[in-house]
TrEMBL record:
Keyword Heme: no
Source organism of the structure: Pichia kudriavzevii (Yeast)
InterPro entries recorded: HCO3_transpt-like_TM_dom, HCO3_transpt_euk
Protein name, entry field: Bicarbonate transporter-like transmembrane domain-containing protein
Lineage: superkingdom: Eukaryota
Gene3D superfamilies per the UniProt record, alphabetical: Helical hairpin bin
Upper classification of the organism: Eukaryota, Fungi, Dikarya, Ascomycota, Saccharomycotina
Amino acid sequence: MSTKSWFSKKKTKYKNNEIFHIRHFGRGIYYDIKNRLVSYYISDIKEGLTYRTIPSTIYIFFTNLLPAIAFAQDMFDHTKNSYGVNEILLSSAMAGIIFGLFSGSPLCIVGVTGPISIFNYTVYEIIEPKGIPYFPFMCWICLWSMLFHFLLAFTNAVNFMRYVTKFSCDVFGFFINIVYIQKGIQILSNQFEKGTVASGFASVMVALLMGIFGISAQFFGSKSQYLPYKIRTFIRDYSTPLCVVFFTGFIHFGGYLNNVDFIKLPITKTFRPTDTVNRRDDWFIRFWEGVTVGNVFLAVPFAILLTALFYYDHNISSLICQSSEFPLKKPASFHYDFLLLGITTGVSGLIGIPAPNGLIPQAPLHTHSLCVYEFDPKTGANIISKVVEQRLSNILQGLMTLGMMTRPLLVVLGTIPQCVLAGLFWIMAITTIDGTDVMKRLRFLFLNKEWKKKLAQIVIADYRAEQERKAMSSLGNGCINYENESDVAFSRTRGDIPSTECSSRKENTSTTEEKVEHIVPADFPYEYYITEPKYFIIYLVFELLAFAGEYSITCTKGAIGFPGVLILILVLVPIVFPRVFPKEQLDLLDSEAADELILESLKLKKQTSETENVSSIDYELGHLNSMTGR
């Protein structure tokens, strides 16, 4: 890469252990623009001129467009036709184009989410009985929220996201996936209420068939070894869009399907607002009409809740799509992106559309779609070798969404049955929920004990060998001094303790490397195997309780307080966990949400010396040694 990375020591103008404080007004935004946007913008464009951008654009276009329309239907029903398809299309298009062109984290997909749809119609249900005009009031909420976004961004308050660990990200990701599954079921149940029994059962059949084929194709393309790699890649890239197209046409196959009246997606006039009763027939909201000074300040607490929601939701989405599972090479941008989100929030209020923010699972799905895989002969699995880090796919899907507002494409959109939306929700949720930490821990908990024991021996032995090689390479030709033999990692054969002398260590390392070739696939990280069972279960219970808190409040009239639950979890984790888990166990259970490269824009870690690196490796090796007899 021609441009040097922004965290190069030569380029650093401040101490390595310095953290952006409030007194450094605007510094986070400045460094985000300088070190991410300016340094890598040309690279983002050039790297986007590859084949991988094409399937990624098509895939994210469908996975962003259709769920957003489903949420539009929710708001349409709950706000007496205040929001419709055009508002959702315009919001998603604006977000895609603006964040694709100007964002410092272009991998993060921004659009209309379930939480913002709940927020919008909850506000409507609160103020409508009071006679307050909805669109001017929502405009004031968005304008106040824009001000709060600016305040948080310029005072570097986004820096507090450095306290977010994988716990918060995993629980929130699991919650969104469950909501998507529930949303699919809700769409199908509505077919019985709004249509006939025949259309209801037929919709269930279509959704199930689409879900089965779509999920199977995704797992076949990404996790199997059948057929050549290029064919599997094609199936993985295009299976979801092709499912949408095929099952939209499936209802026209004839026979008894001709007797079923499937409920389609609602559409409206081209480039016009849906509600022409409570607003004028243009996109500008007269926010000074019909509201009093009291109403303006009444919007402040709602704006605080909206800002809290976006602070958590958008930044978590950005962290997840740039998490440590992806081998990213470019830094992230949080302060500047939150400022940009404030601008889109204010614009959304002025033109009367739902404010967009970071999307889960679309954001991590976007990164997944840009991954290049390689076959690993050691584990027999497909591993991610690199990610095509570019911004063209985000821009293009935004332009395609804007094009959907033209009359011919709106008519095409109106031919899609709602049951296809249900199938798409299930495909997106089930293909991603399997990779969440909550689901992995549940699966691991119920593994056969004998099989778990065999896997533990293989995974732990391989990890020891890997750490041993890292320790040796970090010292070059030097030797590591151990105080006693218990600190020295075992060889693959249990009980075969190598000598602490350098020559013996080298011989043992080479022997270990030869035996690594015999490893079998393992689906779980090594931390699962060496964590004490009781702490493993307690941590899983905490994850399920946090999920229950997030999910339960969305099912009540207090759903507008959902951001408060998110922030509460974020605050309690660093306070409660150190008091419940021993430090060595907590290090195994929870960790930072992303790699150091991504977190550099949130904090500047003090550089660790070589001896500190070696001692930390020695500690882990010794800990593994003690856990083997468990």
